[in-house]
Amino acid sequence: MRPRRWLWLLGTLAQFTSCAHAECDKKEFAIAIDVGHTLHSPGALSARGVAEFYFNRTLAVRLHGELLERGFTRAFLINERGAEIALRDRTGIAATRGADVFLSIHHDSVQPHYLAAWTYDGAERRYSDRFAGYSLFVSNNNQARARSVALARSIGAEFRRNYFTPTLHHAEKIKGENRPLLDKYLGIYRFDELVVLKTAKMPAVLVENGVIVNRDEEILLRDPVYQRMLVLSLAQGLEIYCQRHHRGHKAGLNGGP
Ligand SMILES: [Zn+2]
């Protein structure tokens, strides 16, 4: 093929690519990033005694920065200061600010009977190295459940592409777990009664980014390079979701994936 034809082909491809993604209007697409837990009720304690809230806040702030850099100027954080705020008020804030999607940032633990004691830095701590990995939760009680699943799929695919693997321990048939797995490969569970998911008026996903009671995974989750890869996966998942689903989102919340 002559060089000019190659140029023509490249030009056509570039045009096609930009058209295929044109529907994601980053300046319009509002992303609510919820920082899980509060300073007074900070969630799980890591294997080395750091509360979950601090892991959540670090990752949420980094994700917010990444989204702003990508041009999602309407991305915003909910409760980065860790104030006492009811769960349904978080989704209320998201609705008031016109969020198109709601993403709740968390870090994971295990059922108490799996925890054992060890000493770290002179203090007795609790840990379990049995499970590791991320998980994604959606609720059937969310009024935009099909789109919630679509968002979870976009994020799960990016996690997988970046070599993160899901933990499957929430599907274990024991008290406190027993969550139906919607997608084993992508690590997507159904958890209908999670308050932020069922009260959100927009597609909503809760992300457990990793298991902080696992001694090895805690080290990774505190590492800025590892955090960066998590943030890039989340941001790219949101961007791909926006490209695929943002058009017409106000008209039909529960449209197909
Ligand atoms: Zn949590």
Characterize the structure shown.
This protein is α/β, with parallel strands linked by helices and 257 residues long. 38% of the residues lie in helices and 17% in strands. It has a single domain (25-245), classed as Aminopeptidase, CATH 3.40.630.40. β1, α2 (52-69) and β2 (76-78) form a beta-alpha-beta unit. Bound molecules: zinc ion (ZN). Zinc ion binds next to loops. Zinc ion binds at residues 36-37, 43, 52, 106.
Distance between the termini: 39 Å
The assigned CATH architecture is 3-Layer(aba) Sandwich
The average pLDDT is 91
Number of domains: 1
Q: What's the helical proportion of residues?
A: 25-40%
CATH topology category name: Aminopeptidase
Sequence stretches where pLDDT stays below 50 over 5 or more residues: 6-21, 248-257
Structural class call reads alpha/beta
Described by the principal axes of the CA atoms, the overall outline is globular
In DSSP terms (H or I, runs of 4 or more residues), the helix count works out at 7
Bound molecules: zinc ion
CATH superfamily: Zn-dependent exopeptidases
SSE string, helix = H, strand = E? HEHEHEEEEHEEHEHH
- Would you report the number of β strands? 9
